[in-house]
Amino acid sequence: MKTIILRTASNYLLPILLLFSIFILLRGHYLPGGGFVGGLIASIAFVLHAFANGLKDTKKLLKIHPGFLMPLGLAIAFLSGLLPVLGFGEPFMTGLWLEYPIPVIGAIGTALFFDIGVYIVVQGVVLTIIITISESA
Amino acid sequence: MLIAILAGILFSILLLFIGKWVKTKLQLLPALLPLGLFIYFAQFFPAIAAGEVIEQHYNWVSSFGVNLSFRLDGLAFLFTLLITGIGFLVFLYTSAYLKNNDYLDRFYGYLSIFMAAMLGLVLSDNIMSLFLFWELTSISSFFLIGFNNKSEASRKSALWALGITGIGGLLLLAGAVILGIVADTYTISEMVNQKALIASSPLYILIAIFIFGAAFTKSAQFPFHFWLPGAMKAPTPVSTYLHSATMVKAGVYLLFRLTPVLGDNTFWNTTLMLFGGITMLYAAIHTIFRKDLKGILAYSTISALGILVFLIGLGTKEALLAAAVFILVHALYKATLFLVTGTIDLSTGTRDVSVLAGLKKIMLPVAIAGFLAALSNAGIPSSIGFIGKDLIYEGTLQLPNNVVLLTSLAVITNIFISYAGYLVGVKPFLGKLPERFEMTKTPEIRLWLPPVILASLGIVFGFVPSLIQDSLIKPILSSVAIDASDIHLKIWHGFTPVLALSVTTIVGGLLLYFLLKPTDKLVSFSNKLEVVSPKSIIEKLISLFETFSGWWTRVFQNGYLRNYVSVIIFVAVILMAYRLLQDTSYVIDYSSFSKLTVYEVVVLVIMVGAIFFTIFAKSRLAAVAASGVIGYAICLLFVFYSAPDLAMTQFAIDTLTVILFVLVLYRLPKYLVLSDYKQRIRDGILACSFGGLISVLALEVLAQPVNEEISKFYAENAYILAHGKNVVNVILVDFRGTDTMVEISVLAIAAIGVFALLKLRLRGHEREQK
């Protein structure tokens, strides 16, 4: 599938799709979207890149094995739940929010970090599975 | 206090990094941890002696009533001192006992985790956190028993112990939950005030049975006792620490702790007396059929635990006092005897009591420790054991009925226990040294100092009981709501029936010791009776269960994915059809349907076309692509019916599924038609009936009145409580965030599973040998 058209296109599509996935992630709180879909879109972006340029190039681009994204994401999600316990003496996973929203990103709260954790885990899971399966072919 | 409890767990994490130095230069470092904790807890001495109770409270999951509340009262205080004090000596002893072991750091890690768990268990005032620490002790005990994981016997014993205590843990959870519901609190110190309410509840019997189950399994009561002799496969420091001094007393602790909540009740008292009585006698008699030192000690420990349960069952003030003193007495002498055994084993390489003799010449300090412990064990005057034994007899003598029976039971048990003590603490050291042991080296100081310290404490307390009377023993009774002001621990009571009983015990033990020599004959005699022991009965049940599950697995888990799917769908169809045929009115309210639009018709046509294409496709790739089309068509339906979140996710998932399929299909052999005509018809009928049923079900659901309360709550509160306007996402990340947390964990586990399955390349010798 290494056609020149797809390869050229994927070079532009990858950053755009990644940006789009982050957009979807951030927008999730008010409008359709969220960490899960965002993570899926981001992984599709990488998979597309792998189709066009070969798995080796994609792995080089990723630098680390996507498996490491899973503990990272889980840790972020877990810590966002733990923050209220440690910092404010509230029960686990109480939603805490900054009073004023920040431009572009919107309201900042623990739920946002939780969603970012989900976003990262989903990417880690999907890419690990797909890379493992296609490597052992 | 939280830091003190968690210190062991933190230390075990630290060991990951400093492990290699612990094996070489820093051998004594781990022992500093229990020493520090001992000092920390010892500073509460004056406060406890003054009758104070130290409490600390951390909110945890308060919405479920599960909090980390810790309460240091008399009972907890005695246990913390035993855990940290004996812990220190055991840590010290271990540094020499397992000196050249490759996994010494790992051993210390497990031991520290155990210590933390045990401290948490005795300090918890919340029964849920008590349960948590209870389980943690079982788990750390599993790793410690199976420490020599290359030996099959020790792996098996570890599993036995985990199995039995694990069942107990589940029972404890059940008991704790019901108790919490009945008492309307999970805090033990508050339950005491609800005693009348709990006692009058119809659930009382159930609570008591569950709590008994937990305590009897943990504290090795008959018929669950057999995991404890098995647990002796663990290195001796473990047997000393977990399986005589601390962990096995957790069950006794639980009963003691709950006495003011559940006690003073005929069912409670009779059951405990019965089980404790059977256990103490059964195990005590068993000691004469052993010649392995640790085997003898294991059974005498079970017997001692039986005495404790029995005393708690008697439930009088005297009996509880006896139990409180006996916990301390037993911990001191039994830990000594275990350490002595360990040293003998390490130096001579055998634990067979019938060949050991004359070791006094080689290891005098160990012999002294053994003698002193045997004195205390036999209850000879001037030892704390004497006081303990006297209290037991006082407890039984002052009962309102069955005095003779229960007292003689106690006397017989004690005779056998003191015989066991002589056998372990005295026999190996006296007599002529056999030739084979003449080259034995004298053990180093770390191998004899800990038992000497423990044994001497037993004598010191025996001479000066006032040392422990006010500071340790009285607060224990106060912590189970008994007025303890008039208690006096005395060495000399005058010429009383109690004295006569004590003398009988001592003489009886000595007689047994001189008349009965442990021989192979006795051992093989008991092995013959092993067939009817609880252990072999349970083993048979387990092998029956294994045969059954093997058959079950072969029938249903036959490795063909298509069979799994058809079985699942078939069962689902049967269940649904049964329910739907029973009472359904089949009214379809056409007026409630919205009008069919052109888009929907187009999508439906695409879908049906794709379905037929999938079924009749001649290549796998075509079938996968077609099933992808079905998925996308469903996405479109979601869009039409305004579920954009769902549509987006479904869209992305479908794309990935097709990609995954393609990746996998690449590697499969050429497409073959494996199923014949009949099978296809059968599958077709199954699929159609499933689809049909789902349609009927959907229509039925539509006809039901919808409970909108939940969705209304979410819609109204999404912005107010969670600052979000997308209700779906707010539910995912906030309202039901914990669900999502677990879901992403499951996802990660699945990915790791795929990774492991495909990447695992076993080398020849690692493959399972058949």
Describe it for me?
The complex is a heterodimer of chains A (137) and B (770). Chain A has helices at 4-27, 35-53, 55-62, 69-88, 110-135. With 137 residues, chain A is mainly alpha-helical. Chain A has 5 helices and no strands. The model of chain A has no long low-confidence stretch (mean pLDDT 84). Chain A has one domain (4-135). With 770 residues, chain B is mostly helical. Helices cover 72% and strands 2% of the residues of chain B. Chain B has helices at residues 2-23, 29-42, 45-49, 74-97, 104-123, 127-145, 152-183, 188-191, 195-200, 204-218, 227-231, 236-245, 250-262, 266-286, 293-314, 317-348, 364-378, 384-397, 403-425, 445-463, 466-479, 497-515, 520-529, 534-556, 561-582, 598-616, 620-640, 644-665, 677-703, 709-722, 727-735, 737-759; strands at residues 54-61, 66-72. In chain B, strand 1 (54-61) and strand 2 form a beta hairpin. Chain B is elongated. The model of chain B has no long low-confidence stretch (mean pLDDT 85). At the A-B interface, helix 2, helix 4 and helix 5 of A face strand 1, helix 28, helix 31 and helix 32 of B.
